[in-house]
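Re-running NADP-dependent glyceraldehyde-3-phosphate dehydrogenase to confirm reproducibility after the cluster update. Everything else is unchanged from the original entry.
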Amino acid sequence: MAGTGDFAEILDGDVYKYYSDGEWKKSSSGKTVAIINPTTRKTQYKVQACSQAEVNKVMESAKSAQKAWARTPLWKRAELLHKAAAILKEHKAPIAECLVKEIAKPAKDAVSEVVRSGDLVSYTAEEGVRILGEGKFLVSDSFPGNERTKYCLTSKIPLGVILAIPPFNYPVNLAVSKIGPALIAGNSLVLKPPTQGAVSCLHMVHCFHLAGFPKGLISCVTGKGSEIGDFLTMHPGVNCISFTGGDTGIAISKKAGMIPLQMELGGKDACIVLEDADLDLVAANIIKGGFSYSGQRCTAIKVVLVMESVADALVEKVNARVAKLRVGPPEDDCDITPVVTESSANFIEGLVMDAKEKGATFCQEYKRDGNLIWPLLLDNVRPDMRIAWEEPFGPILPVIRINSVEEGIHHCNASNFGLQGCVFTKDINKAVLISDAMETGTVQINSAPARGPDHFPFQGLKDSGIGSQGITNSINMMTKVKSTVINLPSPSYSMG
Ligand code: G3P
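Result of re-run:
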């Protein structure tokens, strides 16, 4: 159970502690932040509201711990990460319980998130050992005008202190996708969890604590964005920010200083359906891509662009599957569970009402009870409707009927977002041409968008982000190349 057994030390009364300098602590602010259970809409947990002085302390420890960690052999760093991965998987049940209570993630998906996270950490350890164990050797005479008098040796060095800010929808997995690469590369890491998801994050961090990482190398500060948000992201001790979330990321990137940024800020992933597509495959993928975790995924299908000639048939097939979705509490492992907050539910409702006023066809009746919104397919959506462009982050999916592939590509590319997209057709040549024309970081052919497997590159164009993620890219992003040049007194040619 959460907060008991191995996790008892992270809880003080009914308030979870924060993690600084290798210890679980109460904030001297004496204040707490309540975490509301999306299903019951009552306070489920409380966490510490850390102060700016506590953030300063964490930054100091992170800086000194990083120096020692950078001198720790790579194989030893990997060994500790493997240990943390095993402990994480061993404790999947209490962590999944937190995910169910804090973010209403369906029970089975909550367990999968923790297991996937353990696997991600192990893979990161292995990948890090390989890619960080190698550097480059360059010789000067390949550039015009040079003799072979210079040997250049390059290696990858850590950046220093990485600030990781994961989102509510994968608080554990998207935290470890930053923690693993940061640590294997010799950085220290400060984690600022999302409010919903903070307790899952604290349990996950405790698994790293149990694995025996050095004091101060990992810290986790909880609190109000208004008090410590900007303070953290503009802190002079931070050498890199890895953020996943909404458009707060745009504000962060404007305020951050001369440091590398890794940002993933959402998407409006289009699903383009051609006349020759296998409509049963498309319908299955629309359900998985549009409605899993109630549409609260950056990579969810957020608009279907279907050729008019097959639109009726596709809508009928999708509706038949929507009717089978189980709606209810996450504890019962329902397909559609309450969205994360009341304000999210209100926002989604605003999009639905706008579509209603402007004449979209409601394939199901709009139904809401608290934060629980029943799945809804909106047909005959037009570009003047907000739902055609905005990200609902809820179980509401618009269908726009198109008369040409170009119309579909045009709609996709007119979006401010450019995360992923997908195209369904049996003609691979057409699929590749459409993929090339779509301005998104990834295009899936004949499958719904998805980030995983976690070692695949994951990136967004335009407002969807900065940089590329995926295990290898994240390790590289959290390092910098360092060169040492050996200058010889006279040219030297091997075997010359
Ligand atoms: O930020 C990415 C997340 O929202 C989606 O991840 O694994 O569901 O494709 P995934």
